[in-house]
């Protein structure tokens, strides 16, 4: 394991996938434990995707007071939380079922329209204890959360004064069959205590480096996680 520290981010390179998941889970557990010690409760935001799933399972093995932990999402597809393609389902199957007692707040509420779900998410974010940590991923197109380059609502989401925004990613190939999204915005990201970006594979590292060289948040929205004022991004990478 090696670490590179710059004024914009910290990059930790792990030698193998097992060490990567174990070390990230250990860092997450330490952040939660400290927050519980200081404030009595901890709130964190998680992302979906296959990359973080083993990390979540490892995290659940740590002997924390899970009843004192609240879990939200960095973003969500416009799907029922019971749909296997939703981020809620992935978090539930890989973490919540193992971390008994943890409280979960999905972004999508069955029976409510998209605008109302976004309103509820912003209300909750504004009145809840600030999240001590957010776990993010990045696509090969440079998106993070559901901030997709080329999406019609990207500019509105980046400039939103609310923690969450609706986003239509129609025409963005990486959005696949789920163009309608709810996503964390830079405004929502700013007050979060720790920012973790989990990456696997050389291509992801190449995309991150291209983003840093570009400086164009519209081309590489992952830059919102790097350049939004607040906590320095900690990138965990392995091949």
From TrEMBL:
<dbReference type="GO" id="GO:0006098">
    <property type="term" value="P:pentose-phosphate shunt"/>
</dbReference>
<comment type="similarity">
    <text>Belongs to the glucosamine/galactosamine-6-phosphate isomerase family. 6-phosphogluconolactonase subfamily.</text>
</comment>
<comment type="pathway">
    <text>Carbohydrate degradation; pentose phosphate pathway; D-ribulose 5-phosphate from D-glucose 6-phosphate (oxidative stage): step 2/3.</text>
</comment>
<dbReference type="GO" id="GO:0005975">
    <property type="term" value="P:carbohydrate metabolic process"/>
</dbReference>
<protein>
    <recommendedName>
        <fullName>6-phosphogluconolactonase</fullName>
        <ecNumber>3.1.1.31</ecNumber>
    </recommendedName>
</protein>
<dbReference type="GO" id="GO:0017057">
    <property type="term" value="F:6-phosphogluconolactonase activity"/>
</dbReference>
<dbReference type="InterPro" id="IPR039104">
    <property type="entry name" value="6PGL"/>
</dbReference>
<dbReference type="InterPro" id="IPR006148">
    <property type="entry name" value="Glc/Gal-6P_isomerase"/>
</dbReference>
<comment type="function">
    <text>Hydrolysis of 6-phosphogluconolactone to 6-phosphogluconate.</text>
</comment>
<feature type="domain" description="Glucosamine/galactosamine-6-phosphate isomerase">
    <location>
        <begin position="16"/>
        <end position="225"/>
    </location>
</feature>
<dbReference type="InterPro" id="IPR005900">
    <property type="entry name" value="6-phosphogluconolactonase_DevB"/>
</dbReference>
<dbReference type="Pfam" id="PF01182">
    <property type="entry name" value="Glucosamine_iso"/>
</dbReference>
<dbReference type="InterPro" id="IPR037171">
    <property type="entry name" value="NagB/RpiA_transferase-like"/>
</dbReference>
């Amino acid at each position: 394991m090696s670490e590179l520290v710059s004024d914009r981010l910290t990059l930790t390179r792990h030698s193998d996938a097992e060490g990567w998941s174990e070390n990230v889970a250990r860092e997450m557990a330490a952040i939660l434990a400290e927050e519980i010690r200081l404030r009595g409760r901890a709130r964190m935001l998680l992302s979906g995707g296959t990359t973080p799933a083993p990390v979540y399972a490892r995290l659940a093995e740590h002997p924390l007071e899970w009843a004192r932990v609240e879990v939200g999402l960095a973003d969500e597809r416009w799907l029922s939380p019971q749909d296997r393609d939703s981020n809620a389902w992935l978090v539930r199957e890989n973490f919540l079922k193992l971390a008994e007692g943890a409280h979960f707040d999905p972004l999508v509420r069955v029976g409510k329209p998209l605008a109302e779900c976004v309103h509820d998410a912003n209300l909750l974010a504004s009145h809840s204890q600030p999240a001590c940590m957010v776990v993010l991923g990045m696509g090969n197109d440079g998106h993070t959360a559901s901030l997709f380059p080329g999406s019609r609502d990207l500019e509105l989401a980046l400039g939103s004064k609310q923690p969450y925004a609706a986003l239509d990613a129609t025409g963005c190939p990486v959005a696949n069959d789920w163009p309608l999204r709810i996503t964390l915005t830079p405004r929502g990201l700013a007050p979060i205590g720790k920012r973790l970006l989990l990456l696997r594979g050389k291509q992801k590292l190449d995309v991150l480096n291209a983003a840093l060289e570009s400086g164009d948040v519209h081309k590489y929205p992952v830059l919102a996680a790097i350049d939004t004022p607040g906590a320095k991004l900690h990138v965990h990478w392995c091949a």
